[in-house]
Every structure is written in C-alpha cells, then in structure tokens.
C-alpha cells in the first residue's frame, strides 16, 4: 500500500513540475536524441531477451523497434533499459524511458492511479496449468485435491486461489522463490501440477529434462493482457505508440508482410496503400512521415511474423496463437479501422 | 689413539614411523576418529567421481549453441558462448581494448603505489589514484576523448563489478578520511553532522540504498534531467563505502599514540601539517588490513546491483538463463563460473593484501 502511495505521490510530483518539459513533447525529444529509450525486462524468454552478442529480441522488444522504425525510420535506433518490476513505473514517470514495454499487465488500478496510459495489448496472457503426462489429467477440473507448485508473490497465487474456490475444489500450495526452483520442484514430483502465466509455462516446460512428458492444460484462469505503456499527458506520443502496434496487427490482417510490403505500395488494394502511406494522411496526422507503417512492416514485420519469430512456431517456445490470433481467425486481436 | 665412536642410532620401532604410523596417529587415534575418518572417506568416494564425471569427463566443451550440449554432464558451452557477455556485457567488441587498457592502468597504479621510489611515492600515487576515475570514465565512455561513444547501458559483466568497486573506493577514500576527522573534531556541528552521516550509511542495508538510488532519486530531479542510472548507483556506493571506511580510519586514528600528536604540536606544526604529515601516514599503515577487507566486501557487494537491473555479472547470468535458446537449465554451470571468477579475484586480493601488510610493517614485527 505504501509503495503504491509513494509511486502515486511521486508521479504527481513529477507531473507537477513537468510543465516546462511537456512543451518539448516526447516525439521531439526522441527525434533530437536520434534514439528511442525503451524500458524492457531484464530477461524474459521470448519477450525481451539479450543474446550472446548483446542483441535484444522478443515480442516486447519488437514494439520498441516498431516505434523506432515509425519515428526515426530505423528499428535499430533503440537504447534498451533493462528494468526490474519495481523500477518500471518510476523510470517511466521520471522520463528515463520513452516507452515501457515490459510484459506489464493492463489493470484498472495501474491505468487510473499511476499517471500512465496503456497503448494497447501486444500479448493476451493468463494463468494456466502444466501437468506431467503420466498423471492422465486433461482438464483443470480434474485437479481436485492436488499439490500445486507456485512461485511465491506472483499474481498467479491469487488467481489459482480464486479459481479453486469458485470450482469448489481444494489444493495444497507448495511455494518456491524463483521460477527455477519452481520447475525443479515440479520435476522432482513435489507437486502434481505447476501453475504460472501461459507464456512463462512454455519457457519452464522447455527447461524440463524431458519437455515432451509435460502438457499445458487448455484452461486459462485469469486475464493478463500485456502491453506497452507511456506517460500520461503527451497524447501525440500516446497515439504514435498505440498506432504503431495497431499497424502491425492491421498489416497481418491485410496480408502485408515484411517481404511484400514494398510491392503493395504500388500493387496493393486501397486499404494497403492507405496503411503503407501511398495514399491518405495517416502518417502526417501522427506527426510522422507518410511511410511510417511501411518502415515498421519492412523492418520489424507484421504482428504474426513477430509472434512466430519470438514466441511461436519459429522459436523454441512453440506457443500457439490462441487468444493472440486475429479476430477473423478465432482470436481477439482487432485493430481499429486504419483510415 | 682410540677415539670414541658412538654406536649408530637404532632405527625407531617400525610402528612409530612412516606412513602407517602417521595414519594411525592422525586418522585412527581413537574409535571416534576412526569412525569419522571412514565416514569422510565414504562421503568423498560417493561424491567425487560423479562430480568429476559431471564437470570434466561427461562435460560438453566445444560448440556455440545449446544443441551442442549432447552429453549428460556440464554444458560448459553455455559459459564459453556467453563469456563475452559475462566479462564485458554488451560493450562493442571493437572497443574492448579500452576495457583491457583500463584494467592494465588500474593494475599499474596499484603496483606503482608500492614500488615507486619513496621520495615521490606519496605524491605520485595520490595523484594517480585521484585521476583514475576521471580517466576511466573518459576512456570507457569515449565522449571526452573523441572516441566512439559507448553509453553506460552497454557496460556490464564482471569488468563492471571491478570498475564499480574500484571507482567507488577511490572516491570514497578521501571523503571517509574527512568524515573520520570530523567525527573526532572538537567542533560540535561538524562532529554531529559526521556522526549522523556515518551512522546512517552504516546502519542502512546496502540493498535499500540501491533501491533509493534507482527508484527514489530520479523523482527528485526535474523531468528530462536524467542522471545516468550507473552514476546514481555509483554515488550510493561512494556514500555507503565512505561511511564504512570512516570507521576504519577512526580506529586507525585511535591507534596512533597521543605522544605523536603532542610531538607534532610541540614543534609548531599547523593542524593540517600535523594531520597530513604525521598522523595520516601512521593511520594508513595501521588501517591497511581493514581497508583491504572493506574493499573485498564492497567488491562482492557489487553483485547486489542485480536487484536494480544493472547488468553486472550475476544479472547477465540471469539474463542468459532466461534466453529462449538456452532454456535447458544451465544455472549450475553459470553460478560455478561466477563463483570461480569471484573466488580467484578475492583470493588474489588477499594474497596482495598480505604482501602489502608485510611491506608496510616496518616497526612492530620483524
């Protein structure tokens, strides 16, 4: 409670004397600097991760790259600031970063009380269950009386308690401090199932000695929409981030990919041309050049490409699209009309 | 003439010399000891072979990706593939010579402050030490020297631990000396301020100080004035360190016999002449073991920086463990590597510390 009050008070304090700074909007600052400063996680498989050569990649990182491509025309012009969960909102409020793209769940409390705006959802996550195959369980409803491996202090802990109470089932929690320990506990048979967010489960599953022996159950028991976050009070910048993400989703829906985007500016249908800046004024309305979305799609790819490359079939995580499929294909991804 | 020739010594009873006797005396001298010996041997026999086969015989040594780790044992490929990250963070490979250069300079300054001719040693080494952080920042960052700029978000790895520790202790050194003087001062205001400062930074856990540096400090600056996170943390380390060292120095001051103060007063030296020329050299000599111990402590404390996302070596290891192409569980290999580099450096420092102590110990013992 104190922590929240502190963040609120500090954000209020910062917004109080940010009058001078807001005359110079975030867009101008980024252009002047020539680099986008992007807050990411210190390491989350598939979302924001650094490789052996120090190159950042991931679904969250692609949001940073997309905004950099739209604003600066170069998806590599990003300065990544790895942040812990505790620091992230302060870093945003103090202006240390321009965007926070760090698997942050969009909640009412955060959106309304921290002086921040969620610019959309780039991944719909939710708590789920993983069991060993030989347990013979195919649905979470069969887990009555089981032992649960949980990482202490996570929102999953709350979600699973709610779920079991609602279903009139019982479980005994076995809590661990880190996700490594949780996995080790699950593997050694301390518990019957492991529960965590779906994206996290996929990463934990790969780390098992025999990943094929574990299955992730179909039930998703909580809502964890993750998305990029910006400071309140700079609507132009908010729009840029929001529509950069929407452009990736819209591009997938229109079938525009990193390979065919260049051609589509000439041969595409009117919607393609509007998106890619060959017609209309979408770019100048945002204060960007007309080829902003073209830069995003050619340099970063559309949402589907980014998904498959980082967490989907083209990656070790092998996550299904699930909820993160387009609305027209059974998911809930839906970009507002691009016109 | 007959000289007396003593008969040659008889050999001692065969039961009391040689390996058998040694074993009997040291390992099986009583029933309790015999049981202990057998238990320890059993433990070693059970545990050592699997450890050796895990770490060496069945280990994977060559390759660049996780797929190269096919054997049962340790995946040292993980450590070798990530070694650049573990040692230098994301520092550009073409610029690594700057890190090596600074490490050499650091080593050179350490060595020369103990080997320069005595006539110039004091002045030269003080100048070198005080210039070192400035030179270090200039070389590593590059902006001031016209080299390609390497911003601090790219610094990392084990060398960051070394540089953070060295840069903090160097700056903290003169400050802590002043705090210690202040605490011994007769002037109530200076004494109170020094005492409060020292006790605050000694009484607060370094972790909470790091959180303050990373989370609270930015809120006191105006938006847009971004003081680099690394610099904020550096300030915190300097404060923390000077609080600790001040107490070390205070101990040193108290160890100097009061006759030294009185002798200095009697020949009419001013306060600063007395302090700098008579007292300080003796204080440093007396405090040297504690100063080095404090430094080793600070050096190890730099791993706490992981809690605020600074990519020092343990943080980098955790980042590596979270990479989706290395999810096979290599925590053990990684932490062993960190363990080894830290142990090697700390052991090296304590060997060096012993040498320094022997060299400085000119009066007390032979």
Biggest chain pair interface? A-B, 44 and 38 residues
- The first-level CATH class of the domain at 81-91 and 150-360 in chain B is given as Mainly Alpha
CATH architecture of the domain at 81-91 and 150-360 in chain B: Orthogonal Bundle
Residue fraction in strands of chain B: under 5%
C-alpha Rg of chain B (nearest Å): 28 Å
Secondary structure: number of strands of chain A:
14
* Amino-to-carboxy terminus distance of chain A: 43 Å
User: Could you give the distance between the termini of chain B?
Assistant: 49 Å
Instruction: Provide the CATH topology of the largest domain in chain A.
Output: D-Maltodextrin-Binding Protein, domain 2
Largest sheet of chain B: none
Number of helices of chain B: 14
Indicate the structural class of chain A: alpha/beta
Written account of the structure:
Chain A is α/β, with parallel strands linked by helices and 339 residues long. Chain A folds into 2 domains: 2-124 and 225-250 and 301-329, D-Maltodextrin-Binding Protein, domain 2, CATH 3.40.190; 127-222, D-Maltodextrin-Binding Protein, domain 2, CATH 3.40.190. Chain A contains 15 helices and 14 strands. In chain A, the strands form 5 sheets. In chain A, strands 10-9-11-8-12 form a 5-stranded mixed sheet. In chain A, α4 (59-72) crosses α10. Chain B is mainly alpha-helical and 366 residues long. Chain B has a domain at 81-91 and 150-360: MetI-like fold (Orthogonal Bundle). Helices cover 70% and strands 0% of the residues of chain B. The radius of gyration of chain B is 28 Å and the shape is globular. The model of chain B has no long low-confidence stretch (mean pLDDT 89). The A-B interface holds A 10, 13-14, 17-18, 20-21, 24, 29, 42-46, 49-54, 79-84, 86-87, 90-91, 93-96, 180, 183, 203, 206-207, 310-311, 315-317 and B 81-82, 84-85, 89-90, 151, 153-154, 211, 214-216, 218-219, 221-224, 226, 229, 307-309, 311, 315, 318-325, 327-329, 331.
């Amino acid at each position: 409670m104190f922590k929240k009050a502190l963040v609120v008070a500090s954000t209020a304090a910062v917004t109080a004397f940010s009058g001078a700074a807001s005359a110079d909007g975030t867009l101008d600052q980024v252009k002047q600097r020539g680099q986008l400063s992007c807050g990411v996680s210190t390491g989350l498989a598939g979302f924001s991760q650094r490789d052996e050569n120090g190159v950042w990649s991931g679904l969250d990182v692609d949001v940073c790259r997309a905004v950099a491509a739209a604003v600066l025309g170069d998806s590599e012009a990003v300065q990544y600031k790895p942040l812990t969960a505790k620091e992230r909102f302060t870093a945003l409020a103090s202006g240390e970063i321009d965007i926070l793209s760090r698997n942050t769940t969009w909640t009412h409390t955060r959106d309304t009380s921290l002086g921040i705006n969620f610019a959309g959802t780039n991944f719909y996550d939710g708590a789920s269950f993983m069991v060993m195959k030989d347990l013979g369980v195919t649905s979470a409803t069969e887990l009555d009386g089981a032992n649960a491996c949980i990482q202490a202090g996570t929102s999953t802990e709350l979600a699973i308690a709610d779920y079991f109470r609602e279903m009139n089932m019982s479980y005994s929690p076995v809590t661990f401090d880190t996700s490594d320990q949780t996995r080790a506990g699950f593997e050694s048979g301390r518990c019957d199932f492991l529960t965590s967010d779906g994206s996290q489960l996929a990463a934990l599953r790969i780390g098992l000695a025999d990943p094929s022996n574990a299955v992730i159950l179909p039930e998703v028991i909580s809502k964890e929409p993750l998305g990029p976050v910006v400071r309140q009070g700079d609507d132009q910048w908010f729009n840029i981030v929001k529509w950069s993400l929407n452009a990736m989703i819209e591009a997938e829906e229109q079938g525009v990919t990193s390979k065919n985007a260049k051609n589509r500016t000439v041969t595409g249908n009117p919607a393609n041309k509007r998106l890619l800046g060959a017609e209309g004024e979408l770019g100048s309305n945002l204060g960007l050049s007309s080829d902003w979305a073209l830069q995003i799609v050619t340099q970063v790819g559309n949402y589907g490409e980014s998904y498959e490359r980082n967490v989907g079939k083209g990656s070790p995580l092998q996550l299904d699209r699930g909820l993160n499929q387009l609305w027209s294909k059974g998911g809930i991804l839906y970009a507002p009309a691009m016109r | 003439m007959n000289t007396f020739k003593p008969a040659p010594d008889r050999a001692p009873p065969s039961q009391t010399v040689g390996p058998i006797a040694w074993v009997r005396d040291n390992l099986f001298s009583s029933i309790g000891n015999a049981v202990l010996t057998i238990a320890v041997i059993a433990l070693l026999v059970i545990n050592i072979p699997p450890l050796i086969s895990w770490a060496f015989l069945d280990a994977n040594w060559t390759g660049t990706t996780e797929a190269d780790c096919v054997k049962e044992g340790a995946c040292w490929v993980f450590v070798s593939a990530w070694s650049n990250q573990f040692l230098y963070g994301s520092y550009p490979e073409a610029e690594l010579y700057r890190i090596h250069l600074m490490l050499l300079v650091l080593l050179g300054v350490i060595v020369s402050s103990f080997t320069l001719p005595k006539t110039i040693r004091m002045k030269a080494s003080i100048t070198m030490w005080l210039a070192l952080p400035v030179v270090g920042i200039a070389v590593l960052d590059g902006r001031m020297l016209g080299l390609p700029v390497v911003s601090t978000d790219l610094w990392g790895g084990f060398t960051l631990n070394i540089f953070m520790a060295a840069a903090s202790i160097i700056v903290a050194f003169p400050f802590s000396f002043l705090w210690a003087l202040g605490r011994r001062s007769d002037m109530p205001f200076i004494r109170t301020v020094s005492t409060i400062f020292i006790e605050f930074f000694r009484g607060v856990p370094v972790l909470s100080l790091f959180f303050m540096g990373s989370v609270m400090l930015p809120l006191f600056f105006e938006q847009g004035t971004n003081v680099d996170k690394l610099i904020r943390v550096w300030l915190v380390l300097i404060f923390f360190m000077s609080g600790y060292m001040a107490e070390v120095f205070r101990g040193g001051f108290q160890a100097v016999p009061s006759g030294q103060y009185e002798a200095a007063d009697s020949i009419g030296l001013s306060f600063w002449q007395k302090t700098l020329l008579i007292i300080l050299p003796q204080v440093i000599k007396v405090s040297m073991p504690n100063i080095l111990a404090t430094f080793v402590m600070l050096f190890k404390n730099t791993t706490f920086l992981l809690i605020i996302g600074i990519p020092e070596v343990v943080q980098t290891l955790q980042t590596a463990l979270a990479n989706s192409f290395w999810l096979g569980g290599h925590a053990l290999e990684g932490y062993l590597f960190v363990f080894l580099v830290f142990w090697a450096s700390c052991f090296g420092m304590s060997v060096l510390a012993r040498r320094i102590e022997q060299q400085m110990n000119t009066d007390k013992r032979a």
